[in-house]
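Action item from last week, closing it out:
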Amino acid sequence: MANQTQILEPKIFQYTFATNEPVLHVNSGDSIVARTRDARGYDENGNPLPEEMKPQQPGVTFLPSNPLLGPIFVEEAQRGDALAVHIEKITLNRPNAWSSRNANFGSLTGEGPGRRYLLNPPIEAGMHDWTLDLERNVGLYEMPNSRLPRVEIPLHPFLGSIGVAPPHGRAETALTPGEYGGNMDCVETREGTTLYLPVWADGAYLAYGDIHAAQGDGELCGSALETTAEVTLRLEVIKNWPLAWPRLEDAEFIMTAGSTRPLFEALAAAQVELLNWLVQDYGFERWDAWQLNSQVGTMRIGNIVDPYYTVVAKFPKEFLPSSL
């Protein structure tokens, strides 16, 4: 059967990564084109997510954050496989974005009633509006009360949330990252990257959304430049490639993402997964790989604001055996 490109016109968005009812069935090699909602559910025209497009379950109140497209059922995907998600296109389709700050949320989470203060009193909630110049690929922010009244930054859109159903039948909120991917908020999930996700349930149940037009390491205030886009993904099943954590690849690096708390444990998860990849798939002796990575590897923090933190470990492809 020839590979197909399917247009996803969602009738419902999900607030969890889980084995929810699939909205689309695809085969390995197929592509999907769909338009996302922003982290609060607004579309490219500023319309909120209608009630009939929100998940409904008697007796359950969902956390209404990061509405997800999907899940998508990939016919050939079975437990123990990996799902390669080729991020082929992320086209921003809205001339604005927002970022927010909220008490007891963000990187300064020691604040708040009954908790130890870190660097500041509780944060005053507020919204920050950004203009997106899509032709010039920059974001503009007005700061009339600051000595720098206006700032312009380059845009680098990526998927803040993308993942499969977690293991053991779990359901995780769209705000949470883990071994299934999820809300990793790492800037590497961008156009041109291939994301490799462990398949924990037959069909994979891929879900995604939460487009960020730009974001610094850590997503310090708790939100990025939240907006919408049209996204094109191509899905490929890699048989019998069991992964413990998500892996990524672009033109320059192979990468792994670990998501847990405390931050050191996320770092360790990412680094052990990267070490295993270098040994098992690239033929390095284990401690040679560890030594080389100690000298040429890099890391970045995806987020330090979600229920679990995310660290991405990166190894330059120029030092892989096939590149030498």
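Closing note: The chain is about 10% helix and 35% strand.
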